[in-house]
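[Meeting: bench + compute handoff]

Bench side (C.D.) handed over the final construct sequence. Compute side (W.E.) agreed to return the predicted structure before the next meeting so the bench team could plan truncations. Sequence as handed over:
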Amino acid sequence: MNRLRRLPMDVWFEPLIILVIGVGYLIWYRSTTFTPTEKASLAWSNLQTTILAHVKLTVVATVIVVVVAIPLGIALTRPALKRFEPLAVNIANIGQAAPAVGLLVLFTFWLGTGFRTAIVGLVVYAVLPILQNTIVGLRQVDQRTIEASRGIGFSAARTLVQVELPLAVPVILNGVRTALVILVGTATLSTFIGATSLGTLITTGVTLFLPKLLVSGAILVGLLALLIDWLGRLVELAATPRGIS
């Protein structure tokens, strides 16, 4: 009981929300009459493929963004490249500010339709939160702590790895969580350029005027976003050094 009280509220409250929404949806699903098209789209064999495709889009895009944005953020906090920080952040901000659908369509003219184009569009759209949080997280490390580390003989690289990054982890991982949630929602739009996702349920519901299918797609996307956000919170909590909140 004491351990539960020490946990942040969102760690145990968010799964309760997921459970309530999930159970509510299942009750509604079992008590509702669907058309043949809705039944076919929501059959587990089709739904499983659609969910896995959506998760694959999200995970692949997230991995690429993390591999690009975190090292870039670290590099931009070093004295030699510090002057390029505003330029890099502004370029990343362009991707975030552009309408997601428009961004995907523009990349379609260049790369064609399909999974690869969707990934490129999602990566460009989600770079900013991780890049910005990496920079902010490293910038907020107390300069006196860095000087003390150098004073006991740590090299710049060792100070970065053993002092700066551990202290910046909570802020960096919060940026990763934000990017994950953005990607889960934005990945639904990939259906417009030929990549399978849960957005297929939503667009089919809109196109064929099947509100139950539309509602199902929206709820499933919402549940997936909440679940991924909660899992990201657990990783953030586990990776945060003790004594840092």
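W.E. noted at the follow-up: The mean pLDDT is 88. C.D. will use this when planning the next construct.
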